[in-house]
Specification:
The structure is a homodimer.
Chain A (H helix, E strand, L loop, with lengths): L14 H10 L3 H14 L2 H9 L5 E2 H8 L3 H13 L3 E6 L2 E6 L2 H16 L3
The structure holds a DNA duplex.
Amino acid sequence: MKMEDFVCGEKYPHYKVIKDVEMKTPDEEEIIDLADMFKIFSDSTRLRIILAIINTELCVCDLCELLKLNQSTVSHQLQILRTSKLVKYRKEGKQVFYSLQDGHVEQIISQALEHIQEGGR
Amino acid sequence: MKMEDFVCGEKYPHYKVIKDVEMKTPDEEEIIDLADMFKIFSDSTRLRIILAIINTELCVCDLCELLKLNQSTVSHQLQILRTSKLVKYRKEGKQVFYSLQDGHVEQIISQALEHIQEGGR
DNA sequence: TCAACATATGTTCATCTGTTCATATATTAA
DNA sequence: TTAATATATGAACAGATGAACATATGTTGA
């Protein structure tokens, strides 16, 4: 064991604990993917879009109306959601209907919503 | 019904759908809280800290060692996690041990991790 | 073909965020 | 008290991000 492994000035203090944690932690790439996914959810506009299409497919125009937002703003956010594969879309003439890619997203969000709703403390 | 309720140039097109969605959607304040929570998870440094203390309490010094980060950086991020009530801490002499506030956080993250791990597509 | 409409995209700008450096606070031991 | 150590915090800076505007693309019907 090298000097770098010593922590808090003590000998072998939390060394074992640290090694244990290292073993169980997802690798760097996965953590970044995870953070990126949460980043998508971290904007209230995107979240409102996601919540809107959670059970219904909606066209861009509907989303603009519903969320009282610029068409440009909505399209830009939809682009981000498309890139991150969280939504799918279907073209029907001039219109494009968006819906959630799968049920995972809904689960993650409703779990988080529960936490919020309990968390008065 | 007013003109503003017309969407996509059609008469009463997705009007009912929109109203339905409006009914079911969480209110603005809740959405913002939700977004704020996801914002906390959206940084890989914070995520690594959270993952590290998911089953073990660790002191700041351990976290620096484990994550190979500045003590200042770690403290700043811990401050954010404290403010958002996602972690709790315990002082023991000079050291401060951090751990997760409750199991919700773990559930949300592991759910998201599952999504990531499946999502090769 | 052209006009009208729905959507997408490039660019700019103001704002936010994470990291670092320097320094402050707090605790322990001598 | 002073020195050493663990942690917290303030300021500054680089990079990221969301919104808006202008414009491009694609589709339909005349």
